[in-house]
Amino acid sequence: MATSRSAHKWVYNFTEGSAKMRDLLGGKGAGAAEMTRAGMPVPPGFTITTEACRAYLANKGKFPPGMWEQALAALKKLERQTGKGFGDRHNPLLVSVRSGAKFSMPGMMDTVLNLGLNEETTKGLAALTNDERFALDARRRFIQMFGKTVMGIDGEKFEHALTEAKSGPSSRPTPS
Questions:
Q1: Helical packing angle, 50-58 and 22-37, nearest 10°
Q2: pTM for this predicted structure
Q3: Helix, strand or coil, per DSSP, at residue 32
Q4: Which pLDDT tens digit goes with each residue over 69-112?
Q5: How many Cβ atoms from other residues are within 10 Å of residue 39's Cβ?
Q6: Where do the H-state alpha helices sit in the chain?
Q7: String of DSSP letters for 53-96
């Protein structure tokens, strides 16, 4: 843990945690750390602590001192580990953001997949996979999850827009 001479530790790489740190890392973070320790094929990642979440909420939506810098350092390490770049239009790093408490609460905490996709990185993903439809669908899922989970937009609005887009231009009314 942090000492009085060093900044408080808000971010732990999966390699630093364990199942014994469930209070600090949440259930998913502790589980990912424990699987990493056991040598299972877990993609590299990091956890922002439950303490950081409590400090953020107590400070009216402001990150605790040093947390953002620690998260950016962890992201840079993730880029080095994967050989990909967050926001790199040619070799994009996409991350999953999963919320978690000490104990799982189904339906209470959602996941946002494919964070890092934008118009440019989607083109890069399409080129890397040689599959434009896959890349566009991944971006659609990201927008839908982000809208619902982060922005609180009703998921039905996305379904309606998707259904309309699939029906093609011939079924849409033409402006007069």
A1: 150
A2: 0.82
A3: helix
A4: 999 999 999 999 999 999 999 999 999 998 876 666 565 567 89
A5: 7
A6: 22-37, 50-58, 67-82, 119-129, 132-149, 155-167
A7: HHHHHHTTS-PPTTHHHHHHHHHHHHHHHHT-BTT-SSSB--EE
